[in-house]
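The pair is quoted verbatim underneath.

:::
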Amino acid sequence: MKLKYFKYWTFTALMGIGMASCENFLDRPTEDNYNESNFYQNSEQCIQGVNYLYNSPWYDFQRGFISVGEVMSGNVYAGSSPYLNFTVNGTDNDLVNMSYSLWAAIGHANTVYNRLKTASATQQVINQCMGECLTWKAMAYFYLVRSFGAVPIVHDNTADLNSGSYNTKFKVEKADVYEYIIMTLEKAIELLPGKSELGRIDQYSAKGLLAKVYLTKSGVSGTRNADDLAKAAQYAKDVIDNSGRNLLANYSDVFRLANNKNEECLISWHWSAGRDPWTQQNTLQSDLAMVGFDEFGDCWGGYKGISVDLQDAFGISALESPDSRSDIDTRRQATMMMAGDVYSYFWQDKGGFDYLKFIYDGEYGKGGPAGELQTPTGANFVKHLYGNNNDHILGLGVSAGNMYSGLATHILRLSDVYLVYAEAKMGVASSTSDASALAAYNAVRSRAIPNTTPKTTITWEDVWKERRLELACEGDRWYDYVRLSYYESQRAINELTNQRRDVYYGISDVYKSYFESGSWAVSTDVRYNPDAKAPNVTISSFTLPFPTEDVVFNPNLMKDPIHVDVRSEYSY
């Protein structure tokens, strides 16, 4: 946490919110008609002043969101990425940007929260905006503690600047960081309305996040804490029973542009379709889509692939013919593109997007992969893609462009809360037949697999797997391994070590032959890499290194963490 970032937080949180947006929900003031001293003068300005917390501070986390959440967890193959083989160091660009983005989110939230204390607006609106600030702050700390372990607490960055303590802060023990997150969310819940407009954080958004925090914290001491699990279940159940929210009927609809703001999504990054200023936009399609997927020349993610191991988890294989594979889980096609897949919601002006035709038909896929499957795993990304510009206009009414879209990134969904409840209700047992836990689990599973027989008993393993399938490629899976490592580290290590994280040989030839002839032929030369090496996973793998610059700036980051009674030390 370098000095320039502390200064940046304070300055930009007050003065840098002059950005244009294409959605009323994200309207922001223009730079030329206000300054900090004359802003926050009414309710509308207070809402505008907090809107940018839904995107800009998080922009530089987008790549780390995938690299850490999905590549490290074994859901995504990314070639020689250090996240794939657990060799990340403190100079890695994605790591550095991720860290600075999370600290910036905290700094911005702190500064806007404090400025709102003297705002001229209705108390109801001030409370709502302050609650949103605290929820975003808690979310940033939740990512930090699960990524880096013990971290410093920056309760008020302006106060730390004034005291000169910004470069001497010590890390705080993980358990205390979790308690600080809980304290922050409790205050947010007190301030937030019971229900807000779709897309905005409300009381149940914070309660859903608090449930997940308690579930994660429950193992931090080395054994699972029954009281924390009970709290997780309590808050999750409150959301399930009282929020008025429901799962969308069709899983893939959650991730479409037209549903950027929907009742299932409790907390989302809401991006704007533009580059002025840079940081307001979603750029994930550029990093994850095959070359030529849109018309802006900005897609280079085709060589990343959905891992063989995640395919295994779905019970399917790229080596199976699409005419015969057991493909009953609707989440599979909504998560990964494979041979035989056609998408009605991509390339709508062309009658839909045909995966193999795009790769192997030079006219249809003009500017695309030119006859060569880019990913060596046989499966490409679907989530975080919006399609072509026509799809973007149909979904949002505005154009996308080079490295920008307005597709929302959902980071806490109701289905996640359902599964948090099912696991927390199980407590320290290995299985449960509790009716409410079964109802939550089966609601998630039955949406994904229509007509499936509801389970009458669920195990911890059932929920563990369901979380992977439900939330795959949503930046979450690695953090499940982190929380498992708190109390059962060898189990987490063994599972990661035994994953199929490598590639298939010859899969492009199989796909091409199938496209051209309609027949599926897999020779003995087509196989999973027989020389694939297991990653070197140790207990230290579950804690990322601090950026090297931060350690140089503050050597105390290399010292043992300290205990802080956060309830006594800090208050809101």
